[in-house]
Design goal:
342 residues; Rossmann fold; 14 helices; binds adenosine-5'-triphosphate; binds magnesium ion
């Protein structure tokens, strides 16, 4: 069964972007946040990780945003969530002695102890995200229409979301149970919260994405209505030139190429590009089938992502209607269908 996505990503209040390391989570988070802010939404985007890649992508050369966050452009505020800072904030709010808590958390023995303790990072980070959602402006209106989370790489991805449930089943009363309950309710809010997996059109990421999706369905229950397949190779030639590799290979080796490499080299290049495109296309189809979800394909940007223009290009594709199983394997790469249609 292939499910239809439940509408635009911009209609959600919380989007948690997840996926294996290096699949493009930060890029997708930045592109989504940028598009939402352009659409007039007030957006908070939170990066959970050691470095501030997100801020560097959205505002290259700007100073760190830190835990307190900073509005990088109208309507777009970036936060960097460090679990220890989140813990200090939480405990400070609970026991009202922030100074004492800060000193305690700076204690190396305490930190070492915490480094080895499972679960608290996830819980406290999700708690901070819940808190961001609750913030209000002076008129009592929610400060952020949309919170985007650039989550840690999967492996941790499902654990990240499962901690509140585990804590609640272990601790049935008190502030910890209440806190976990609020976070769990936020995650399971099917109308407002969405998990957005990002995959690459390659064998291992395709398999891992299918595992992630089925575990989220079976164990977590968070809404998941599409998969983003990032950096998909574009069709190397227009459809009427699909036999170009064969035509080049059939030419006599001495055929003049007007200063270009010999025909054998050109034939090899054409063949490699077509193989990569076809392989990507097959994996896009496999992801759609194995996850029983529509896919959003983002094109591979030659030379990598170098700034807001690239992000906007990806952002437009990200908000385009996802393609369902059979269309996902169509012979056009992302963007081309629309370009050819117009
Ligand atoms: N569509 C794309 N086209 C070309 N390059 C891309 C694309 N998307 C991402 N990249 C590049 O791939 C690399 C990894 O992307 P990104 O940092 O977004 O991944 P990530 O999943 O956040 O990684 P990590 O797990 O390390 O946080 C970056 O160098 C980025 O510029
Ligand atoms: Mg990242």
């Amino acid at each position: 069964m292939t499910l239809q996505p439940d509408g635009s990503l911009l209609e959600r209040r919380l989007v948690i972007v997840t996926g294996k390391g290096g699949t493009g989570k930060t890029t997708v988070s930045a592109a989504l946040a940028l598009m939402a802010a352009r659409d007039g939404r007030r957006v908070a985007v939170a990066e959970v990780g050691r470095d501030e890649h997100l801020r560097a992508l959205l505002a290259p050369g700007s100073p760190p945003v830190g835990y307190a966050g900073r509005e990088l452009q109208p309507g777009l505020t970036v936060f960097h969530i460090d679990p220890f800072e989140a813990l200090a904030e939480y405990l400070g709010l609970q026991i009202g002695m922030r100074g004492l808590v800060n000193r305690g958390l700076r204690n190396p023995v305490f930190r070492q102890l915490m480094e080895g303790s499972p679960g608290w990072r996830e819980l406290i980070t999700l708690g901070k995200i819940w808190h961001l959602q609750q913030l209000e402006d002076a008129r009592g209106k929610r400060l952020y229409d949309l919170v985007v989370v650039d989550a840690p790489a999967t492996g941790h991805g499902v654990t990240f979301l499962d901690v509140p449930r585990v804590v609640r089943s272990a601790v049935r009363a008190g502030p910890l149970s209440r806190h976990s309950g609020l976070v769990e309710t936020m995650i399971l809010d099917q109308a407002n919260s969405l998990l957005l997996p990002v995959a690459l059109a390659e064998e291992l990421p395709a398999r891992e994405t299918a595992t992630l999706v089925s575990r989220v369905r079976d164990e977590i229950g968070m809404a998941i209505d599409r998969v983003v397949v990032n950096a998909v190779a574009r069709a190397p030639f227009p459809p009427e030139m699909s036999d170009l590799p064969a035509k080049l290979a059939a030419l006599p080796p001495e055929t003049p190429t007007g200063g270009l490499p010999p025909v054998a080299v050109l034939a090899e290049c054409a063949s490699v590009r077509r193989s990569r495109y076809e392989l990507n296309r097959d994996y896009v189809g496999q992801i759609a089938r194995d996850c029983s979800l529509p896919v959003v394909q983002l094109p591979n940007i030659t030379g990598g992502i170098s700034g807001p223009d690239d992000l906007l290009q990806l952002g437009r594709e990200l908000l385009a209607p996802p393609r369902r199983g059979e269309d996902a394997e169509a012979t056009t790469a992302p963007g081309e269908a629309r370009e050819q249609a117009s």
